[in-house]
Amino acid sequence: MNFYNHSFFYSPVFSKDESIPAVAKITLREDAVAKSHRPNELCKELDIIGAKALTELFVKITPNGINNTIKRIKQKHLTKQLIANLSTIESVDPIFPDEKITDRIRDIIHTNKEIGKLKVKLFRFDNEFDDGIIRRYVEGQIKLLGYEDIKFVSYGQKLEYFVVHNVKTTDINKIKLINGIKSIDVFDKYTMPKSNIINVSEFNIPESDVSESDIIIGIIDSGISDCLSNYIIGRKEYVPPMYQNREHGTFVASSILFESFFDNIREQNKKRFKLFDVVAIPNSNKTYGPIDTLSQDDLQSIIVEVMEECSKHIKIWNLSLGTNKLVADDELSDLAIFCDYIQDKYNVQFIISAGNYKGNPTRTWPTNINDNRDRITVPADSVRAITVGSIALKSSKHSIVNKNEPSPFSRKGPGANYMVKPEVVDYGGNILVNGHYQGVGVLGLNEKGQIVEGIGTSYSTPKITYKFAKILDELSDKDLLLTKGFLIHDARVNSKQLNITNNEVMYYGFGNPSYNNQNILGCDDNEITLVFIQKIPKGFNLEMPNFPYPNSLIKNGKYTGEIFMTLVYDPILDERFGSQYCRVNFDASFGTYKFNKLTGELEYKRQVPLEKTWSELYEKSRIQHGFKWSPIKSYYRNLKRGIAIADGWKIRIDVHERSQLDTTKHEFLLIVTIRGEKGKPVYNDVVVELNNRGYLVVNLETRQQIRGKY
Prior knowledge:
The chain is α+β, with helices and mostly antiparallel strands.
């Protein structure tokens, strides 16, 4: 490693003003990515300001920082910690200009295409003084190139960039030389997903056995036809009338309003929700009329304006976008970061489609695609959002997949950072071997209010939106995290036949939630669902010992039964750290303990394991720092053969933080279902013993049932 090179590389900057910070990239050896192996001692005067891939760290450098670090390295007697730090480092490099430009920019330069707006992102230093210096410096350098039409955009410091208008292609090579720039790109363009609509028949609105709800669902799409005006309580239009095509938005809206009718599924406690229509996505079908696209920055402005006006009374938002941009392994997309910021700031829940794969060959099941061409697309990598894939509702001898198998067009995970995406699936249609889908699609309404047939994750997504709203409507406490937890838990319990390992979890996520949410919000006598909501102070773990396992599930000296657990939490997020975006990790453990008379110690054994996911597909370090930091985790065990009786059971919750995080408490939600055979009084066993053992039980109220909350 040669720090002298950095002094030379950045000398044009430092010679003008030594207060202007620069950035270097430290590349770690693959076997040194653990937190304990970070070069913190070496970086005492080179502040770690971010990361990208697991083996890459970004550090702030200044002339004094470089000189003092060189002096420490050249000492005769190095500390053991510094020697250990140096052994973990593969290289230390400046940020080279070509690293800042994306493949799209390279293509623009090569083909000399026009650039409407350029997006220039800066390094952030977690220091308002340094951030201000670098922002003013970069802006000044761009203006020296003759660009006065430049605007700085900031979304809560989570997503920041300059917008530069009418940039000449030849000037990109000058802009990339400017110190402090992290990336240069153009804005993504979004279009209305292809409607994929065939077949027409008349539709009479079914009104029987439906209860009206006060919950309002926002739909950010191409617009909803006035044929559904009775259900639309408000509308904001951002697309000029000549560019509007409300086919797609109408199909989405009708899927929320009449899903069980179209899918011919028996549903208890049907709900009818009101809709708020955001007409944001222009027409992309040339045969329909004039076409247009929606730029990422314009979409973000629309969403902010809508949230400012509506988020206090509309908490659920359905978002389907047409994009072919695949998610990355080592960082979230800008739109995903923006979606996370919006969901945090306004306390709303986005439900987003996984995207549609249209490549060749068509994907079969089991999958015949061994690369990432059918991976989810932006912004489905949003951590806070619920991402939805598609499974087939119908099949035939000529269909590509069977019923309940992943639709041939549904995209797979993982998301960025190797997190489970999509989290859930629902019915979005199938395809025939001849490429058509007549008779195997899903039904919805067109602009004229007629029943039509279509396919796509755009049409599975509103069904999950409906199920989410239905759960939220049932809860007296309108808590979005609790609703998400119930939705995911319901999906896993309802889909227990799935083998949630390698390929299956990539497409199914945690499964398909039930249409009848009383399956999860209500308790039969032979099962109990417990909800634990708690905050854990930094540096602590939480244990709930002496947990009462139901006596009715103890048979021939063994514990029996079936156990499902879902852990959900909202971790602190920091986009500066790329693949380490999630800064907090929870893990849940439910198991038995026994006193060892020989050692005098209480021995604990986890009995309900974390379900296997990427462990057979990715190297250990990627699992350790990616999936294991996922904010949704599923645990399951069927004690068919039973396990030996011990002295008792306990639940344990551990919390870990990544480096450079200063917090006090973290909140988690754990849902546990214990189920026995029909006729077993599981519910009564547990409730009685919880009270006898001094657990504080608070009733979690729903419209229909009361269940335990601890």
